[in-house]
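Our working data are protein records whose layout never changes between entries. Instead of coordinates, the fold is spelled out as a row of discrete tokens. Here is such a record, shown just as it appears in the course material:
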Amino acid sequence: MASRIGPGVLILLAGLTLNAVLVLFHFYPFIVSREVSTLALHSIVYKTCTLAVLIYFWALFTQTRSEVQSQTQHLQEETAQLSTDLTRTELNLLEAQIEPHFLFNTLAFVKHQYKIDAQAADQVMHGLIEYLARAGPALRQEEWNVAQEIELIHLYLDILRHRFGSRLRYDIRPLTHHMQLRIPALILATLVENSVRHGITPKAEGGCVTIEMLEEGQMLCIHIIDDGVGLRQTSGTGLGLSTVRARLRSRFGLQASLVVEPDAISGVRATLRIPFEKS
């Protein structure tokens, strides 16, 4: 950052002013061909000093404004970089949370299934490969559209349905005319994963996950409902939900929201509200 105009510059201006006054004292009477009163000389000195001070403060204001503009631009660049780093960190946390246990359990199931039904094992392996092919790019980008997210969720739940059999059912009710709405990648998948992991899996008879989309004014409302064991002491406070909320704030500010609450009958309802993009 450039140093501010210091007292030295003011002293220099004052020196130039005094030199100009001395010159005027010496030559002004000869220029006008008459004596100059002391009052007139004092007036000249006052006006010259005033001009020097004005020049100093103008130069100080100009340099300060330039520094403020430079600082503002630098802060904007840092803010943008921090936002990008935050999104990338959140995606890495999401990846660390979702992938390991899902991959381990699926591969263990495939290994066991090959001994019983090789064809069924091949189907699960094929679904897993397709899921990873789609999930990989999602973990390397900040956002994609609702249609891409729903396709990934379909693959995820199909794999789990092979593993859980009749213990897992799901119903997805999309709004076809809003499927291109851009959302942070994997936020719906995280909520679905929470429903299965914390709601359906602990329940002996299993249950159903329902994804329902509704239009509410200028908002897309997405309900992710399970009829599992319901809210427990730690529900709604884990890393996955905290990450979803943080990424919603980063992308939409206070316009978007996530509410996790007990469903009317049983289980848990996660309600996500996202504003429509302005055309």
In short: The first helix runs from residue 7 to 32. The longest strand covers residues 207-216.
